[in-house]
Amino acid sequence: MNEYLSTALRLAADGLPVLPLRKGKVPFGNCPACAQNACGGRPNMKIPGACTCPHPCHGWAAATIDLHVINSATWARAWREAAVVAYHPGGAGLTVVDLDNPAAVAWAGRTLPPTQTVATTRGEHWIYRGTMRSVNAVRDGVDIKSTMAYARWLGLGTGTMTALPDVVRALAVKKPSKVRLAPQAITVLARAGNGECRHRTPTYLDRGIAMAEQRITEAREAVHATVYRTFLAVLSVHGRCGCLTEAHMARLFTAAQTKGESPRHCTDAWANARIRLGL
């Protein structure tokens, strides 16, 4: 039996959802439409560019503990061509702190509670019990892999696994950024419009801005597209009467940057929305 398949069956029997990876740590496509990674390697998550298979077919979403699936003819070629076995940490109730260089390992040793540690080619995986959202580059050389992510299986490692600490959870919480408006952004405020104001009270505008902030803040996927559509909606209602101010714009930019958008992306989205509306 193939060594990767043998390892996968053993891990799955222990409750660890597994999947094969090709050379370069890339998932296999398990349907014709995704063969040779044609869809970009993203499972069906209802985001632009994602696989449109009826069911998630690969990546973290393909990880399974079903021994019949793992040992099926459908997966046989994948195991023959596999370069490594991977697993879905979140599916097993785990979180992996991926430390990608010696400096990151040293930081973890000073900062994080001890837990099960596995050596990697460039650093270490620190594995905790508990799940959280996965985030890349929470600091230099540090990724968090838990839900909606996969990690390579590199053995049991050393040490005793401990509960996911708050200090790790805090790494995934973005601190609100101080909004930075690029000089050109100030020139694209909606004050250029001279239409009649339809707002009987400032409360109408304030409510609209608050709803726009909430829409951006609650976005769980396709954040960039959500920001653009929200800017478009705000400008379509308030963009021609001259009521919008730099303070309103800053509130929207701050909400977007808190979700990870850069000042330049905010500026471009605002400008593109104005162009779309002819402002």
Note down, in words, how this protein is organized:
The structure is a single chain. By secondary structure, the chain is of the alpha+beta class. Helices cover 37% and strands 14% of the residues. The chain has ten helices and ten strands. Strands 4, 5, 6, 7, 8 and 10 form a six-stranded mixed beta sheet that branches. A four-stranded antiparallel beta sheet has the order 2-1-3-9. The longest helix has 16 residues. About 5% of the residues have low confidence.
Roughly what is the average pLDDT, rounded to an integer?
81
Structural class: alpha+beta
Q: How many β-strand stretches?
A: 10
Order of helices and strands: HEEHHEEHEEEEEEHHHHHH
Question: How do you describe this structure in short?
Answer:
The chain is of the alpha+beta class and 279 residues long. 37% of the residues lie in helices and 14% in strands. A hairpin with a 3-residue loop joins strand 1 (18-22) and strand 2 (26-27).
Which terms summarize this structure?
279 residues; alpha+beta; six-stranded mixed β-sheet; four-stranded antiparallel β-sheet; 10 strands
